[in-house]
Sequence to fold (787 residues):
Amino acid sequence: METVVTLTLNGEMVSARADQTLLDVIREQKIDLPTLCHMQGLSERGGCRLCVVEVQGAPRPMAACVTPVTEGMVVRTHTPELEHQRRLVVELLLAERNHVCAVCVVNGHCDLQWAAAKLGVASVRYEYLHPDLTMDASHARFVLDHNRCILCTRCVRVCDEVEGAHTWDIAGRGIKTRVITDLSRPWGDSPSCTSCGKCVQVCPTGALFEKGATVAEMTKERDFVGWIIRGRTKREWTW
Amino acid sequence: MNRIELQAIADKEIERQQELKCRVLCCASTACLSSGGQEVRKALQDELKAAGLTKDVQVVATGCKGLCSRGPVVEVTGPAQERVLYANVTAEAAQQIVRQHLVGGQPVNDYRLDADSPFFTKQVRVVLSNSGIVDPERIEDYIARQGYAALGHALREMTPEEVCLAIRRSGLRGRGGAGYATGLKWDLVRKADGRDKYVIANGDEGDPGAYMDRTLMESDPHRVLEGMALAGYAVGAEQGFLYVRGEYPLAVKRLERAIKAAERQGVLGSRIFDSNFNFRVDIRIGAGAFVCGEETALMSSIMGRRGEPRPRPPYPAQSGLWNSPTLINNVETFGNIAPIILNGPEWYAAMGTEKSKGTKIFALTGNVNNTGLIEVPMGITLREIVFEIGGGIPDGRTFKAAQTGGPSGGCIPAEYLDTPVDYESLTALGSMMGSGGLIVMDDQTSMVDVAKFYMEFCMDESCGKCVPCRVGTAQMHRLLSRLIAGEASAADLATLEELCRMVKALSLCGLGQSAPNPILSTLKYFRAEYEARLKSGAAHGAPSQEAA
Ligand SMILES: Cc1cc2nc3c(=O)[nH]c(=O)nc-3n(C[C@H](O)[C@H](O)[C@H](O)COP(=O)(O)O)c2cc1C
Ligand code: SF4
Ligand code: SF4
Ligand code: FES
Fold:
């Protein structure tokens, strides 16, 4: 059953399928809304809160990526208040760990950097938390640098949902949360990792990168998850 | 089991109690046990044996009587006996009570508590009506006080729809914090499509200082089970889960015993009261994360996943445990159900204010003479709670503020002491009802320190899923620490306020959304204390608001 709903998006009437999220519709309308934890083809997490929009009648902004469309919804995506709050979120992320872009392997190809630039984050007013974090270079081909991780869990989800290995997981809570491989053993010792590299490609920052890449060298292939999913659901490939 | 058999058990138990000369009720809840309750009970038993009174006098290990700061509390009661309460009982005092009171007939005045003091007379015990009276490990005690009669009645005389209607008409609202109308929630789950449905009792109780739910589970476990079974019947669920936090081993032990006893008696399990209704209850033990009290995180934890909230909708009533419609209520909410069914919704709705019906249990702590667990009618004023039930502020100090709602709530200053305690009034003051923590603060308390205490709690308990809460609480904590150290500028204070508003608006779940409340409410009423700590005029200790 496919029902169609109508909603008002930034003052314009648009229609959508009832099973779409607000973010789907916003993207269809080519409205530029920053996102970090969302990745086409993966389940939604609703964690970064950058995609928040104003929905008339809702007590607080809603994360578009996890909000289903409903009939008659009135949505605004870029109020000054929302833009301001998004900037604060990015500032918090920049202060959480060590995001020194000038020495990062993905400098210039980083989702966090893009979001900051797009939102006009010029400075960070919060104290840098400088947590004492390590790097895991035990894998033959890839490196994990916790200092750049923003805990979006794109790696966790792609590994579980697309590769089916579920090597990645989350440990700890609050500001002490970390991504881990298997039951927190070195990545290189992981028996479940297939070395497919999907996590590296979906990682929005320089937290996961290919060995040997130096500053600003590493670019990421973001579209491939969509390719794989489309290929599988439409049975375009046989093997 | 049928209703006649239930009545027979009740009659037999009442007869047994009537034949005793008297019963000595000793509180065996966590608080009284930690102040020596076990030794007192043993001393009573030994002394009774020596006096040859074991046949006439029964020593009963009961649940909590409320006045936890004066424990161990002991009550002497009997058919031809004036009810006498003793507080701060020691093993020696216990011996004296046996010799002088039980043998000699003369109450021991040194330890006697005035049962007519406002601490007792101002309370209305509905949920806690059995607490401190029944032995939580004997189902017969509970049945003798009309236990499981509501369930028996509902299964025979009421349709599930009628049970939901009764709860709706009673005006009962959830006691877990948000105050959602319970009957409405039950109706939603009842109407939801789904072959398997579930009922969850939320006994995670993570607020610092709160122990309402622990006490109810320890003191009257069958009351919670009966409420859950009634809910199961009303919404069409056959499986219930009782989620208890791991720090409550005594509650778990008593609930386990209660479930076994109830199954043996046929009031839980298959074909309850010889009807077609089956209902099982299993206990799930939490691992001590505050966020696991949040309903979606709790369900995730029951399913064996990481205790992390997820965005709603879908609400548990639509899609909860294993994607089935799920009813989740607080333990205290379930404690209200059997009395409502037995006495009728009108009786219940007659208590309280227009929008907040019935009673609420509070854990009264802090700078107040009588600390303990109290159950009061909704609409009672803060002043009555603090100065009559609580007996005022000790050491000649003055009242400064009352903190309600724990880490999600706020501080209410003296000028609002006459506010009626109900959901709407407390929210309007920038605090909230919460689950029932009530901390009284005197004029020596620094409100900035209070705010920092709660922020530290939220920072440690944030699950880390969403950025505003994970990083925002850490930054708010930093800013408060700097303020307290006298290192913050006016610009830092502005940054703090701005961050509070953002974290409140953008966080994913209730933890983050309410984490700024302790700061915002103390800023609202005690802004001068924050400003006094700014870099230039940094002062230490409490500001000069000395008692007159
Ligand atoms: C961070 C957080 C912690 C919570 N902790 C508890 C808790 O310990 N006990 C509880 O009953 N509800 C708790 N709640 C509320 C539950 O999510 C839920 O609303 C409640 O169990 C519903 O029951 P009620 O309708 O009977 O109040 C918590 C909510 C949040 C956001
Ligand atoms: S390693 Fe990368 S993909 Fe994984 S959680 Fe961190 S930032 Fe996200
Ligand atoms: S608000 Fe805090 S506790 Fe709730 S989902 Fe976000 S990080 Fe987790
Ligand atoms: S993209 Fe929606 S919350 Fe991250």
Remarks:
- Chain A touches chain B at residues 45-49, 52, 60-61, 63, 66-68, 85, 88-89, 92-93, 95-96, 125-127, 129, 150-151, 170, 172-177 (CB under 8 Å).
- The radius of gyration of chain A is 19 Å.
- The first helix of chain A runs from residue 22 to 28.
